[in-house]
């Protein structure tokens, strides 16, 4: 992006006015847009009352919460705002989902998990073994570091009830072909749950195009507050067990899946994410429907993030003792064919892509040592397993102290990446 463009973007995030910190731990949590914070402030100071009463302020509060739900439905392209279930975190929503699914699971039902996911989309599912579910693991290819589609086929059967997978790995950064996976799972009568936490900050989520039956992500990774979303098809959500009080109707969505109700002020604040994206669209003078304009904004973000990611990846590729964990370029000029072979042709359309979440290890230096060196320069990066413990174990990365992870957002700059590289070079 041009200097004037990135300056406008950064002006929307008060935390970025603090020159003492470079925020490159965005996969752990992004910065919050001003409009989001303003909405939370406004709600708390003018409509902090219980919903459902007949007096004016309560009616206004309810209107705000429902309008926010509609805005969030538009953000993710849901058909009906009743499909939007909100809660404290992705992990918390996953445990609620499993509780609601539990009565529908029969002994012998098969659930396919991956060993690349954050534990939020693994551990909750494993609890269904208590009622007889059979867990199968779709293993990552340790050489390509990809979930190979031909390795999925033997796992599918008429007993497949659910497959749970990440849209983008929070370690590898790889964007997975969830729509194609969903097609294969649906063909045998199963359903798909997609964790979009690492994907949503970098691409505009389209729950309908994803092929998912359930889609979850956290707003605090997408420029909002510590809150989260679970989307599901209306008929599926209606079929789930009621998690609320016994007198709440079984078809009262999403309330039956939101025990204690939503957090009103955070729900209202989350709608500010859409406001922010449309403000950026106004700045760039993008035309079209609100969704088309948001899509154009995300394409702008993607191009900028790709340039920053390649700036860092290029540096890391130059270091013989550094191993990049995941694709070592922004877009790999290969296509995974159905037989599992790779075609080397940069003109192929279905390219393997990554988000700008970049992990690496050094042959001789422990990951904590590298990060602690960077800490002294006011640059926020991180080391560890990032709750993707199965992946770290599979790739034998515990011996390094986990990976060093640099996670870039659209508001980062070339100068910030250059500053990081300069200080990495002191130790690498």
Automatic annotation (TrEMBL):
Q: One Pfam family, short name please?
A: Aminotran_5
Which species does the entry assign this protein to? Undibacterium cyanobacteriorum
Say if the entry is tagged with keyword Cytoplasm: no
Q: Keywords, A to Z?
A: Pyridoxal phosphate
UniProt cross-references to NCBIfam families, sorted A to Z: am_tr_V_VC1184 (TIGR01976)
Q: List membrane-spanning regions.
A: none
Q: Where is the Aminotransferase class V domain?
A: 22-226, 353-420
Protein name from the UniProt record: Cysteine desulfurase-like protein
């Amino acid at each position: 992006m041009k200097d004037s463009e990135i300056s406008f973007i950064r002006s929307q995030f008060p935390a970025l006015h603090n020159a003492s910190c470079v925020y490159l731990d965005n996969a752990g949590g992004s910065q919050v847009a001003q409009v989001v914070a303003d909405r939370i402030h406004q709600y708390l100071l003018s409509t902090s009352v219980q919903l459902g009463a007949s007096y004016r302020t309560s009616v206004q509060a309810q209107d705000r919460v429902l309008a926010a739900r509609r805005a969030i439905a538009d953000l993710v392209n849901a058909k009906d705002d009743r499909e939007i279930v909100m809660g404290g975190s992705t992990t918390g929503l996953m445990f609620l989902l499993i509780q609601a699914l539990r009565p529908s699971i029969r002994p012998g039902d098969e659930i396919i998990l991956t060993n690349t996911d954050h534990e939020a989309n693994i551990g909750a599912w494993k609890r269904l073994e208590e009622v007889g579910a059979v867990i199968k693991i779709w293993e990552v290819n340790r050489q390509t570091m990809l979930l190979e589609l031909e390795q999925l086929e033997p796992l599918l059967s008429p007993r497949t009830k659910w497959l749970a997978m990440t849209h983008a790995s929070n370690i590898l950064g790889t964007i997975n072909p969830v729509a194609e996976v969903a097609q294969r799972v649906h063909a045998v009568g199963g359903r798909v749950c997609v964790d979009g936490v690492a994907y949503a900050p970098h691409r505009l989520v389209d729950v309908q195009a994803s092929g998912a039956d359930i889609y979850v992500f956290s707003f605090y990774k997408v420029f909002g507050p510590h809150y989260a979303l679970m989307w599901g098809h209306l008929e599926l959500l209606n079929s789930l067990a009621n998690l609320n009080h016994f007198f709440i109707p079984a078809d009262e969505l999403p309330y039956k899946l939101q025990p204690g109700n939503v957090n009103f002020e955070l729900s209202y604040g989350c709608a500010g994410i859409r406001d922010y994206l449309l403000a950026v669209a106004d700045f760039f003078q993008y035309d079209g429907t609100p969704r088309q304009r948001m899509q154009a904004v995300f394409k702008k973000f993607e191009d900028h993030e790709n340039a920053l990611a390649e700036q860092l990846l290029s540096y890391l590729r130059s270091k013989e003792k550094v191993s990049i964990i995941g694709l070592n370029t922004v877009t790999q000029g290969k296509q995974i064919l159905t037989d599992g072979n790779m075609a080397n042709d940069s003109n192929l359309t279905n390219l393997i892509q990554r988000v700008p979440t970049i992990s690496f290890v050094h042959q001789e230096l422990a990951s904590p040592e590298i990060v602690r060196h960077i800490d002294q320069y006011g640059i926020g990066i991180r080391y560890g397993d990032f709750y993707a413990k199965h992946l770290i174990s599979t790739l034998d990365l515990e011996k390094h102290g986990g990976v060093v992870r640099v996670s870039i957002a659209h508001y980062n700059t070339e100068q910030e990446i250059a500053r990081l590289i300069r200080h990495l070079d002191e130790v690498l």
